[in-house]
TrEMBL record:
Organism encoding this protein: Panurus biarmicus (Bearded tit)
Signal peptide range: none
Chain intervals with Low complexity compositional bias: 249-259
Biased composition (Basic and acidic residues): 1-12
Protein name: Radial spoke head 1 homolog
Major localization listed first in the record, in broad terms: cytoplasm
PANTHER family xref list: RADIAL SPOKE HEAD 1 HOMOLOG
Keywords: Cell projection, Cilium, Cytoplasm, Cytoskeleton, Flagellum, Meiosis, Repeat
Amino acid sequence: EYEGDRNSEGQRHGFGKARLPNGDTYEGQYECGLRSGHGTYRFKNGALYTGNYLQNKKHGKGVFFYPDGSKYAGDWVHDQRQGFGEYLYANGDTYTGEWANNKRHGQGTYVYKDTGSKYVGCWVNGIQDGPAELIHLNHRFKGRFLNGKPLGRGKFIFDIGCEQHGEYIQPVQEKEEEEEEEPPLPLDPIWKVSEITKLTPWSPEDEELLAPRDAAVTEESGSHEPSSEVFKSASDAGGEGEERREEGANQGQEDQGEK
């Protein structure tokens, strides 16, 4: 069902409104029969996209509202989040930064709503990876991250005016006498303190670091145990797995086309 402009060949061209066979609706610009230009697409499951299209694909600036209450506002390339954008997750967490292939990739800031802590630094394929800073209420950690966890040299900076320098070391797992059917889960890196000093201008970029890291101390006394938040898998942050499933379903509906 379509109501709107057409070109000399009878194709949808210009502004129009359409209702798809699956119950979705689109209102916006068309070019030679395809959604191109600015438009608003409403999914029957409650999701909504408003922004630019190019040949039936989300392309350019746009905002996507998901059924669970989450929202992405930013750049799109061929139906994927790519470029710069902000994602508000259903649990209140936010990510602002660079994207590639629907994943957090490049420089970005992730803010945890429950604690107010935030990760500022590099991401690779949706995982915290590279030089970064993890900022908490009264202290922060500067170092490198690898696969969402801290590894190698870094330092904790406390608001009381001191620093704790050290290194995150990956512990070696003891092998069982008999091989297990499933490999054991990797152990979390362990923080080893080397010195406590006054504030210094050192940063991870000042010297070569062995590997990425990410961590936080829960007490000003310099506990060797990192906080659980530090080791929260980036892939789990904000329930992104559920969001991917919803987007896949929405995309499947949108790709059914208009008749």
